[in-house]
Amino acid sequence: MLEGDQDQEEDQGGLRNDGRRAAELRKIRVRMGVFGQADGSAYLEQGNTKILVAVYGPHQPRGSAARAGGKNVGGIINCQYSTAVFSFSAGERKRRPRGDRKSIEKSLQLRRAMESIIQLDLYPRSQIDVFVEVLQIDGSEYCVAVNAATLALIDAGIPIKDYAIGCTASLIDSTSKNDEDSSHAAGVVDATYMEECSPGATLSIIALPGSSNDATKGLVVVAQGAGQRLHLSRLEALRNRALCGCRDIRNILDRAVRQHLTVHSQPSFSTLHVID
Amino acid sequence: MREVILSHCEKNFVNKAIDKETRLDGRQLLEARPVNIHFGSNWGCCIVSLGRTKAIAQVSCDIQKPKASRPNEGMLHINVELNPMAAPFFEAGRQSDPSVQINRQLERCLKDSKCIDLESLCIVADKKAWNLRVDINIINHDGNLVDCASIAALAALMHFHRPDVSSSEEEIIIHSFAEKDPLPLTIYHHPVCISFLVFENGNTIMDPTYLEEKVGVAQLTMGINSYRELCSLDFNYLTRTSVADVIPTISNQAANYAAELVSLIKESVRQDVEARYKKEVKNFGRFENCIATDKLTAMFTDKIPIKLSSWGKMDDREDEIMEDQKENEQIIKINKNSAELLLLKGDLFGNGGVNTWQNDSSSDDEEESSDEVVMVEETKTKCHVLDDIELSEDSEEEETQNMTKDDIQT
Amino acid sequence: MDECPPITVRLAVDRTDMNLTAGENIGFYTPGQEVSSQTGFMRGHGTYVDEEETLRASVAGVLEKVNKLISVRPLKTRYQGEIGDVVVGRITELQQKRWKVDTNSKMDSVLLLSSVNLPGGELRRRSAEDEQTMRRYLQEGDLICAEVQSTFADGSLSLHTRVLKYGKLSQGIMLKVSPALIKRKKTHFHNLANGAILILGNNGYVWIGANTQEKDQSEGGFTQDLSRVALQDREICARLRNCILILAECNILLTDTSVTYAYEESMKYTPSELLQSEAIIDVALLTQQRLSQF
């Protein structure tokens, strides 16, 4: 079935299954400050991947983190990555939302990404909690989770160095050699679930793109490659493609943050911002 | 027990050494530690040592119902166990963060890359398929657990043979090894994990030790097969310091080393498997051989690394008497195909290695055959002579005893 | 009891953008944005200096410049304590000679046993017995009102209740709003015309105290007046609560004036009707209008 899809794709004049071009992102919808109780919160949609993030803190360390990191000089970041049991589109259910290896690994990597941007030295002996809930999965969910967590941190007013932006680049079929000249050879950004499952390779990058316009300058914080085999010579192009995607997402999120500020700095009512 | 926090002066020392492109164990920046693979008595069982990091792997299989989503494929489970035996700060029986990380890295490297032909493991579609399980136990932690575990897992999978199965209409028969020869797994390509560590000043090292892992700022693990194809990639910042992107610069080195490593694994697996096929007693590369390698009286190593005065020159000599006047080293001819190197300078002692030659020689006296006894005694006498001449200030047990006697007399 | 209150259901598509003022983009800064590459500026809150000596914003908010000190103030953040602030807090923990108080700050604040008024006069020595009976005065979960006495090096606060107006709070409602909405004023204690007591804590915790009889202060403020509150007074408290939440929702600064205006404008609704969005918009608009007249 998958093979059939790819053949079709060749005929679509370089367009992907959902009609996007190789370097085109999905529609991004942002809403910040969705919860009253949390210090910061954000809801982010990238296509059909939908994620909610709540940030609590910085506050007095409580629970297991307080005991483990009692002598910690800097602050503690506690991340929880949980996937809702109903999040698969195919109708199947996840057995449990968290506690399996993949979730623990993602929590760990989310913490790494957050540690790289939060200025922890400002919060000695405090704790910041980041709770991620994946509501719907359609590819790139870890990257979208990082983007949403960044927005939630901004909403909470926690000082960060820069936006930590995640973006995937996927080589749909790494074995085919005939599309060297087409734009797909460098991979497609912001992969959907179908594209991630294809027999290619997917590179997820969390980067700090900076405000400069030079896309390849971004500082890669976390990178993760998965999937089947990818020849080393194609890694660089894939990485650059993902970094380009990171920069584009940053610009979109930055605009969303500015709009959020404009609306909320004056007496007003919250609105849903839809930004393409 | 909590992990001991590294002191600042230790960190600075390592950083400064890396600045000058030296490593504490004398390796080049992009040089890995020697890999040793020893196989156990079963199929699919091996001990891998990467320097002082050691991992033991065992592949086992049973028949299960295949997954509903993949009805005509067998299954592969990978489980890495970090228990307090490897390092006291690992907690037993709990999924800790490092164990999850290693597990997932291996899963991506071996499972997601589809290097094993799982379809050939299916017996009856949708009903019965082989379920492979790779258990890896880390038994000594000296950094770079991922590489060691991945080599162990790959070697064990390549070495593993499953029982043959014949299926009639209704039932399947699993033949014992005596009835039919066991079958090896089909492996399409051989991915191994290669780890790097980036330091504050941007220098990158390969195969970090435990101490270096505590100092580095970013870690990179690449799963590469011998065809220069990337199967997994993990890049993580450990601290909040920014360094330049290193992936493009070292990926070439990683691919070269991966090819080297894979051929080494292939060769050692081939030797062991061939020996087993011929049913000959193999007296090298087995578990019992890997235990005593560090000891002074260990006669089993056929290759002895001799460190010359300049770093980085490794010399493997066999059947040769070497007299090095500058170093306090001496080689004594023992029998036809082995030589013994006595490191009388502080190399073993200074490293905290146990001075076991005395005890062991006495035990050897009792156990070993007569001609070896003669040989051991020879060693002993030589040692004493050397002690008297050159090792006056080195810590040698007999010496200290003499000292105390002198003290008492005066 | 088969009579149910009416249920209001609206369609999500009917939700309208009700910005009270047109969104004009004044200079906002977002994290990572360059503030200034010139040297000679001092780095304040919400900014950092990167490797290239460029001053960059680290939070999203508005720029504030005092002489050479540049800081960026986020819209929403935890409370940053300053000496002399009035705070409302909740006891979270009892420790040796001190209480730990949650004050919406990045760490729990400390209320030392030596900085409270114990029953029986000002100049009383704190005996070991007092230490053992600390829980009799304040226990976990109790609400207090206090003043910030000093800040510690790590940023946590030390509180005191040495003035009789501070101390334990008895009957009323505590609300949490953003600390940025509380304007620093001379007094944060307000006896409203409707009889309720309003404490606008600088830390964003607001206390609405029910109208009760004059407190007997001789016990050092540790007695709780648990006498019955009349239904009428309860309704006043509920209405005040909803009014304050309306103001907070619409980002209108909380002062005694704005709360009073909102309270007066809300009189045409019942307290429960104030939860509906039409009423929220109406009250907020009218309050905003009255505030801007002066």
Automatic annotation (TrEMBL), chain A:
The keyword rRNA processing does not apply. One of its GO terms (biological process) is nuclear mRNA surveillance. The keyword Nucleotide-binding does not apply. Keywords: Cytoplasm, Exosome. Transmembrane segments: none annotated. Signal peptide: none annotated. One of its GO terms (molecular function) is RNA binding. GO terms for cellular component: cytoplasmic exosome (RNase complex); nuclear exosome (RNase complex); nucleolus. Residues 24-159 form the Exoribonuclease phosphorolytic domain. Its main location: cytoplasm. It is found in: Cytoplasm; Nucleus, Nucleolus. It comes from the Eukaryota. Component of the RNA exosome complex. PANTHER family: EXOSOME COMPLEX COMPONENT, EXOSOME COMPLEX COMPONENT RRP41. Belongs to the RNase PH family. Non-catalytic component of the RNA exosome complex which has 3'->5' exoribonuclease activity and participates in a multitude of cellular RNA processing and degradation events. This is Putative exosome complex component RRP41. It comes from Cephus cinctus (Wheat stem sawfly). The lineage of its organism: Eukaryota, Metazoa, Ecdysozoa, Arthropoda, Hexapoda.
From TrEMBL, chain B:
It is found in: Cytoplasm; Nucleus, Nucleolus. The keyword rRNA processing applies. Its main location: cytoplasm. GO terms for cellular component: cytoplasmic exosome (RNase complex); nuclear exosome (RNase complex); nucleolus. InterPro entries: ExoRNase_PH_dom1, ExoRNase_PH_dom2, ExoRNase_PH_dom2_sf, Exosome_comp_Rrp42_subfam, PNPase/RNase_PH_dom_sf, Ribosomal_Su5_D2-typ_SF, Rrp45. CDD domains: RNase_PH_RRP45. GO terms for molecular function: mRNA 3'-UTR AU-rich region binding. Residues 31-163, 191-233 form the Exoribonuclease phosphorolytic domain. GO terms for biological process: exonucleolytic trimming to generate mature 3'-end of 5.8S rRNA from tricistronic rRNA transcript (SSU-rRNA, 5.8S rRNA, LSU-rRNA); nuclear mRNA surveillance; nuclear polyadenylation-dependent rRNA catabolic process; rRNA catabolic process; TRAMP-dependent tRNA surveillance pathway; U1 snRNA 3'-end processing; U4 snRNA 3'-end processing; U5 snRNA 3'-end processing. Keywords: Cytoplasm, Exosome, Nucleus, RNA-binding, rRNA processing. Residues 388-400 have a biased composition (Acidic residues). Pfam families: RNase_PH, RNase_PH_C. PANTHER family: EXOSOME COMPLEX COMPONENT RRP45, EXOSOME COMPLEX EXONUCLEASE RIBOSOMAL RNA PROCESSING PROTEIN. Belongs to the RNase PH family. This is Exosome complex component RRP45. It comes from Cephus cinctus. The lineage of its organism: Eukaryota, Metazoa, Ecdysozoa, Arthropoda, Hexapoda.
UniProtKB/TrEMBL annotation, chain C:
Keywords: Exosome, Nucleus, RNA-binding, rRNA processing. One of its GO terms (biological process) is U4 snRNA 3'-end processing. Gene3D superfamilies: 2.40.50.100, Nucleic acid-binding proteins (2.40.50.140). Residues 78-150 form the RRP4 S1 domain. One of its GO terms (cellular component) is nuclear exosome (RNase complex). Residues 172-213 form the K Homology domain. One of its GO terms (molecular function) is RNA binding. The keyword rRNA processing applies. Residues 28-66 form the Exosome complex component N-terminal domain. InterPro entries: Exosome_cplx_N_dom (IPR025721), Exosome_RNA_bind1/RRP40/RRP4 (IPR026699), KH_dom_type_1 (IPR004088), KH_dom_type_1_sf (IPR036612), NA-bd_OB-fold (IPR012340), S1_RRP4 (IPR048565). Its main location: nucleus. SUPFAM superfamilies: Eukaryotic type KH-domain (KH-domain type I) (SSF54791), Nucleic acid-binding proteins (SSF50249), Ribosomal L27 protein-like (SSF110324). Belongs to the RRP4 family. This is Exosome complex component RRP4. It comes from Cephus cinctus. The lineage of its organism: Eukaryota, Metazoa, Ecdysozoa, Arthropoda, Hexapoda.
